[in-house]
Amino acid sequence: MRTPFHRRYPSPSANVAHEVDKRIAVDRQQGFIYFRIPKAANSTICATLYPKSNRNSVDKRTAKRYFARGRSLTADEIKHLASRFFLFSFVRNPYTRTASAYLDKVKRNTKTQNLIRQRLKLPGEEPVSFLTFFQYLTAGGLYDNAHWYPQTTFIPCGTKTLSFWVEWKISTKI
Questions:
Q1: DSSP string, the chain
Q2: In which order are the strands placed within the sheet that holds 24-27?
Q3: How many of the other CB atoms lie within 10 Å of CB of 141?
Q4: Which residues have a Cβ under 8 Å from the Cβ of 147 and sit 6 or more positions away?
Q5: What is the pTM assigned to this prediction?
Q6: Rg of the chain (C-alpha set)
Q7: Model confidence over 62-109: pLDDT tens digits?
């Protein structure tokens, strides 16, 4: 992406930039930018941030689409990002986030399991274990799906720029 925001804060690739951009929630009226991280309660948080007058009738998918994206920020807004906006995010323990991604996006998804077996050159159709998922991530699969990108990828301006961040503690049982 060649927008002012993405020129100032580049991502590792165009595909990653697209995934990051769609997870930047800009609300000029309320004066905040929320960096949404998959598998860290971001749908619930978006629904909570959705304007109060409409909140009772909104679903989480609509709430996530309501906000402007990073690509909509002007050069002047980017220059004064931290002083013009309240910048925040919620992060999750990386281990429980990875376990959640595995349970939600791998264990029940044949297509993703096939991709993992193909990447690792594994024969057969045995279910992909949690250990095999980790092997896949370290063998180059880390940026194949936004649900397991490193959380800092979604905060392209850097965590030191944030006004506020919280580690979201959710237990996940495997």
A1: --SHHHHHS--SSHHHHHHHHTTEEEETTTTEEEE--TTTTHHHHHHHHS-GGGGGG--HHHHHHHSB-GGG--HHHHHTHHHHSEEEEEEE-HHHHHHHHIIIIITT-HHHHHHHHHHHT--S-PPPPHHHHHHHIIIIITTS-GGGS-GGGG-TT-GGG-SEEEEE------
A2: 24-27, 32-35, 86-92, 164-168
A3: 18
A4: 38, 39, 101, 104, 105
A5: 0.87
A6: 17
A7: 888 899 999 999 999 999 999 999 999 999 999 999 999 999 999 999
Q: 165 has which bridge partners? A: 89
pLDDT in tens, 110-128: 999 999 999 999 988 889 9
Question: Residue 50 carries which side chain, given as an amino acid letter?
Answer: Y
Q: Which of 15, 13, 36 is nearest to 24 (CA)?
A: 36
86 close to 33: Cβ distance less than 8 angstroms? yes
d(CA 82, CA 87): 7
